[in-house]
Amino acid sequence: MAVPPQGSAQESVRAGVSRQRVLELLRATPEGLGVQDLADRTGLHTNTVRFHLDRLVADGLAQRHVEERAEPGRPRLSFTAAPRPDPARDSRNYQFLAEILASYVAGTVDRPAAAAVEAGHTWGRYLTERPAPYRRVPEEEAVTRLLRILDDIGFAPELAAEDPRQIRIPHCPFREVAEAHREVVCAIHLGLMRGALAEMGAPVTADRLVPFVEPSLCVAHLAPIDTAPTPPPPSR
């Protein structure tokens, strides 16, 4: 078993850089490399290379292979980089998790839409930079900041040309889950917009969100604070 390098935090940083270099070499060499090959290419001691390889294998970033030998002697070990994660598969996993959570809220909470609005409201406040004390953000600035937040999440929002208080949302990154659990997912999005605008101290709020007015289009309607409906009370 290789002995890990010890010492100061500076040495730990150097060890991390060296390990990354070993991993880069493995990724650039699909056929695999042995300990001595890596030592020659990196200039590291073979014991240090073994330590880095042990860590990479333990972390799931590298794979160890035993090469068959025709002649007697110790089998040669070679190492390859582990396959990179499949982003599409990761996306499906997150969608599955979202399905579980949305269906649980829809099926077990007395007022799922109210609970979802409350959750979205809390996260909307969290995602928003709070203005200075006693400063009220003008409507135009607030809407611009809200559009930026929605865009960062992946909604690709745009203001309707005919009405600056309508936000068109042509892309929902959670569409498949929303189609199955609209009362939860769309309520979260409505609450998120309300929370963001409330955190800014904006003179408008999200009055309502109309989902799927077209197959790939939702529309959010803003309204002045004094005429907008009061958000539903927290669920119990």
From TrEMBL:
- Molecular-function annotations in GO: DNA binding
**Upper classification of the organism:** Bacteria, Bacillati, Actinomycetota, Actinomycetes, Geodermatophilales
Q: Name the segments for region: Disordered.
A: 69-88
The domain of life is Bacteria
Pfam families reported in the protein's UniProt record? HTH_IclR
Per UniProt, residues of the HTH iclR-type domain are 21-64
Query: What name goes with this protein?
Result: Predicted transcriptional regulator, ArsR family
Name the Gene Ontology biological process terms. regulation of DNA-templated transcription
